[in-house]
Amino acid sequence: MKTLVKIIFGVAVVVGICYGLNKFRQSQIPPTNPEIVRPVRTVRLQGGNESFNRRYFGTVQGGRRADLSFRVSGTLNRINTEKGTSVKRGALLATLDPRDFNTRISQAQSALSQAEAQYKNTQADFKRYENLYKQKVIARAQYDTYKTQVDVAKSAVTSAQANLKAARDALKDTELRAPFDGIIADRTVENFQDVTAKQTIFSLQDLTTLEIIFNIPDNDILVAPIPKVRSLQDLKSHAEMFNINAHFDAIPEKSFPLTIKEVATQATAANTYPITATMPPQKDFRILPGMSVTVEVDYSDDEHQSDKSGVYSVPSTAILSEGANNYIWRFAVGQVSRVPVTVGQIHDGGYVDIESETLNGGDVIVTAGVYFLHEGQKVRLMEE
Questions:
Q1: What is the pLDDT of residues 217-252, one digit of tens each?
Q2: C-alpha distance from residue 108 to each of 104, 151, 166, 211 (Å)
Q3: What 8-state DSSP symbol labels residue 226?
Q4: Domains in the chain, start-ordered, CATH in brackets?
Q5: Helix ranges, the chain (H)
Q6: Virtual CA dihedral for 225, 227, 233, 239, nearest 10 degrees?
Q7: What is the pTM of this model?
Q8: Which residue from 318, 302, 314, 300 is spatially nearest to 352, judged by alpha carbons?
Q9: What local confidence, expressed as pLDDT, does residue 138 receive?
């Protein structure tokens, strides 16, 4: 029994010693904090021997568009066209029930007849009193009273005529006709439905000329090679120097040249500027409003591209200056490395030329927070 106790005690002592040694060893190892993976903003180098291209997403719409509605309220009693139907200018698209409008015409005609009869009687009375006034039988005040009655009766006739014309115009407005040749892109109501004035019934688009709407970020607006930018509309006036093409996923082997039509000067909530470009109609491909499209813009220009390999235009915020030396941070395989560069010409929009034999078109460089990085630091991309 004593032997068993001694064995158990010995084992406990050994275990305690081992545990204490392990805790002591751990206390001698300094704690390691996990390395922070800093998020960074980046840009891909464009320049040198690589063209300065950008891709944007857009949608197709007709060159002319109109939301068609009745000018009067009523009940639909006939719809003559469906979605996707081609229509000619003046084609009757839909009508309202005309019964109430015919009733208003009858009432207006009756009111006009009464007003004309009253005016005729008043004129006859006035002629009699006018003769009596000339014969000095009645006073001037009586003469003026009857003359005023004639004027009032004449005004009543004019008002009744206007009411009759308005009632007839309202009857004409029960017909909805196409204002130009096009395709019914959408219809928002069903037959026999009550509709109100100005309520959209059809969406009509003219596809003889197609328009593509896409948005350009403000950074690209700043770097677009427009000589001495004075206004955003310069992008339109100098657009002939750009190659702008549309690409559709369903037609991968084909690109369609575009021409800029207009440039918005007010940014959207996403800090992008809507651009409208035109595309000729395509006989061999059925391109319809609402289709998604990728727009590729080649901004290549002597100001941003050089025949000399290794010259690039980058945001000035990408440059790290230490004394007389300048560097940029290049991102690759999840971390950054410092690359010496030579700073050259400064351009409008906060861009500068840099030169380095070790840089290549397509390299990803950090554009913000360059003073907070160190060699080999792990980072993750926020936005390229």
A1: 877 776 665 555 455 555 566 665 678 899 998 887
A2: 6, 21, 9, 47
A3: -
A4: 40-50+304-383 (2.40.420.20), 53-62+205-298 (2.40.30.170), 69-97+174-197 (2.40.50.100), 99-172 (1.10.287.470)
A5: 2-28, 99-134, 140-172, 218-223, 234-237
A6: -50
A7: 0.57
A8: 314
A9: 83
